[in-house]
Each structure stands twice: as structure tokens, then as C-alpha cells.
Amino acid sequence: NTLWQAIRHEGDGVYVNYGAGGWSRSVQVLRQEGWNVFAYEPHSSAAAGGEWVIGSAAEMANRRFDGLFSNNVLEHLRYPVEDLQRMQAYLNPGAPMAHATPCYEYLYEYTRFHLFFFPGRSRQLLAQQAGLAIQHYEVDGHFMNCVFSPATP
Hints:
7 strands, globular, alpha/beta
């Protein structure tokens, strides 16, 4: 999983898949491999997920993580700058977050669910407005992943 590889480090880190969805098996697979990973899914699809599923913003507010990752979430957020700032608040100082979406380019435009696309310099503008820096950006076919870290003052 390239997305996971982008933020994990050796040791006993605690991670969260932000907007994991009730359908995703990524957290279950990573936990079976021994990683301390949680799923954050505030919608009803999370109810049957297990003890490693965080189902509310109130629960998230009481936790801190060593890394955060999402897959096909960023393009659905109504307020991506504010949401990235909120996600950063869930992280330990200096911890990265990786967001994969094909919407870093203008793909899949005919859907009622994609609110934003981030082509060209818009990734840098998004990072700057959220107080983040782009640590790494990769493209592998339609898999596009951007790793953000806190901007240095």
C-alpha cells in the first residue's frame, strides 16, 4: 500500500485512516500485520467496524496520532483548508498526513460527489492556506498521493 508507506515509520506509532468508510478493509489488514491503526468514520457506515473504529469528532479530539492518511476523501470535503487544519490538530507535532485522490488532476469530473479538483499549483495553494508544506507528491497511473507536513515558520 503506497499510501501507507508514505507516512509510516518504524516503531510503535499510532495512525489513523481518515474517512475510512465502512467498506474499506485497509485498517483491518494493517492491524493484522501488527500496526496500531485506527479508522475514523463519522458516518453510520462505521457502526459495525469494531473497537478500532472512531465514530465521532468528539472521540477524535481526545487522540493524537503519528500519521494520518486518506484515500479518495479530500475531493469530497466542503471546506478542505479548514478540514486539513482540523486533521493537523489530531496529529503529534511534526507528524505527516497523506491524501490520495485522482482529483489532483481533472479526472472523474462527471460525478455529483466531487466538490474540488486540485490540478496544477492548487496543491501548493491548499497546503499554504492550511499552514502545511508538501513533503512528497507521487503519481502512478490514476493513483496520486500528496504527503503534507506542518509548514516551518
